Amino acid sequence: HDLEGVHPYNPLEDPYSLYPHSLRNTDELCASIVRSHKETSQCRVEELQALRWKLLSREEIQVYQSKSVDEMWQHCAIRLTDAVQYVVEFAKHIPGFRLLSQNDQIALLKTGSMEVVLIRMSRFFNTENNTVFFDGKFAGAEIFKSLACGDLITAVFDFAHGMCDLKLTEQQIALFSALVLINTNRPCLEDRGRVQRVQRSVEFGLRHILHRDNQESLMHKLYQRMSVLRSLCSLHMQNLQWFSQRYPLTAHSLFPPLYKELFA
Ligand code: CLR
């Protein structure tokens, strides 16, 4: 009891625990998450909009389809890892993320980074012709044929389409991505309590902007998408395991180290 008086708790050292719901904090939190999303999003939506006419030609599609399984996997793993790297950068700037232990940061990224890449895919997706911006042009699901994981590709394209239907703003995408990353349900977390405090502040931030945008009903839909994301990621892991068994050399020596570190 006496010690409490000697070492008074200093809320300034831990702004989210004492006033987690103060609006000034929430505005600042949202602003920095949105800024970090913009800085790491690889391409602005308007730029992508302007590139919609750039479609792969029949010959270019042929080139992708005639690649061997391991060649195409390696190619996609490199593209994917590139996108993951930007998500890691995004995570680092979510207020509170850097205060987590290295172990917990990695645990969150292991499952979360791929999920955020898939959320981001909706920004690179054209629902009019079901194409995604890949290697500098828009391409349909058929170009991933030689990966031999049609179920995963179909599910990923369906998910991107569904995300587009929600017509989220960039700010909503930013906060939703942060909430997907900072998740107390991930396995192997050391300090769940600390993750929970960050999670609560991000969740409050998302509710705050949905309220401001008069779209509170989106919250429920976003939670539904989170469980779809979880199943997509386990499908990705299953396919990766299948591939690594069949092509151990490619998986071992030709996949980017970060891809192996996070997913293998
Ligand atoms: C996502 C948003 C990023 C840019 C980007 C880069 C690579 C793209 C990715 C986006 C979407 C998903 C994608 C990926 C390359 C391969 C992958 C198209 C647009 C597909 C789904 C194939 C995955 C195959 C694995 C099993 C290896 O800012």
Description:
The protein is built from 13 helices and three strands, in the order αααααααβββαααααα. The N terminus is likely disordered. The structure holds cholesterol.
Biggest beta-sheet profile: 3 strands, antiparallel
Q: How far is the N terminus from the C terminus? A: 49 Å
Number of E-type strands = 3
Secondary structure tally, helices? 13
The backbone outline, from C-alpha atoms, is globular
Percent of residues in β-strands = under 5%
Strand sequence of the main sheet, in spatial order? 1-2-3
Spell out the helices and strands N to C.
Answer: HHHHHHHEEEHHHHHH
Q: What helical percentage do the residues reach?
A: 55-70%
* Poorly predicted regions: 1-7
Q: Which ligands are bound?
A: cholesterol
Class of secondary structure makeup: mainly alpha
Q: Radius of gyration from the CA trace?
A: 20 Å
Give the SSE layout:
Elements: H1 2-6, H2 15-18, H3 23-39, H4 45-50, H5 58-65, H6 69-92, H7 102-121, E1 125-126, E2 131-134, E3 137-139, H8 150-165, H9 170-181, H10 192-212, H11 218-246, H12 248-254, H13 257-263
Antiparallel strand pairs: 1-2, 2-3
Helix pairs in contact: 3-9, 3-10, 6-7, 7-9, 7-11, 8-11, 9-10, 11-12
The site of cholesterol has 21 residues, from helix 6, helix 7, strand 2, helix 8 and helix 11.
Key traits:
single chain, mainly alpha, three-stranded antiparallel beta sheet, 13 helices, 67% helix, disordered N terminus, binds cholesterol
